[in-house]
Amino acid sequence: MAAYDFKGKRALVTGGSRGIVDAGAEVFAVAKTQANLDKLKSEIPSVNIIAVDLADWETTRQAVEKVGNIDLLASLDKSLDVNLKAAFNVSQIVARDMIKRSCQEVRLLICQA
């Protein structure tokens, strides 16, 4: 039995080609690698899979809008590690050094390559 019961809810899981458990929600797994999503679909036939590069704002927006109403949003830890925590951790380390050197401003630039 799942720790949570999300029956009747619609869940969007980013970076979701691995590590998904059945908690009763209608799940939309979003990830970049189609092969990983196909494997997930073979393991959990009820999951809806969406291959999209989450770093691309426009294609992500289009994919999410096609899904419709979402009740739950889950970003798996690996996705957060790469996309959010890395920038946060590095900025904290660099900013501390900049403060020690009396830099007057700290700017975090995030570029879309």
UniProtKB/TrEMBL annotation:
Gene3D superfamilies linked to this entry: NAD(P)-binding Rossmann-like Domain
Protein name: L-xylulose reductase
Organism: Tegillarca granosa
InterPro entries: L-xylulose/Carbonyl_redctase, NAD(P)-bd_dom_sf
Keywords: NADP
Family: Belongs to the short-chain dehydrogenases/reductases (SDR) family.
